Amino acid sequence: MNVFEKLNEARLRFQNAGVSKSGHNKFAGYTYYELADILPVINKLANELKFCCVINYKQDLATLDFCDIEKDERITFSCPMCTTTVKGATEVQCEGAVITYLKRYLYQNCFEIVEADMLDGTMDPSAEPTVEELIAQVRSKMNKMTDEQLDFTNKAISSRDVGKLKTILSKCK
Predict the structure, then answer these.
(1) What does the alpha-carbon distance between residue 164 and residue 162 come to, in Å, rounded to a whole number?
(2) Half-sphere exposure of 47 toward its Cβ, with a 13 Å CA cutoff?
(3) Most buried of 2, 12, 15, 53 (most Cβ within 10 A)?
(4) pTM to 2 decimals?
């Protein structure tokens, strides 16, 4: 098997392993995979299929290399590094939180471990859109506007006038 066949086989076997989510966000009411849920299964598959995963963190990028041990082939998955602050936590604890999250997301990306979109599940549909969201919505409609409408729209965007932006959106439907 080449590295792509091994990755595909590992993905299929993981999918059929029946892994359960043990993480629970009490505030938003959703469950999620923790590293403790997925790593034992992945490590077993790695041993059986002769691959290993190597994670590296650089200043602006985190990577996971899915490496074929038998053929010296690899597939790289990456995501941008970020920072966080957690109330009452030290700088090192915040760094650890970032590393743990990124590691989990890299494994989920590599093995195509699917979860419901947590952001969509926690958004309040009745919440007012931000000025930035209104501007983005308005900009997506600008290709259908006349010169006069474009002038009015650009002024509304420049002044960040929520009322005018909402009016523009209501007339562009």
Answers:
(1) 6
(2) 5
(3) 53
(4) 0.66
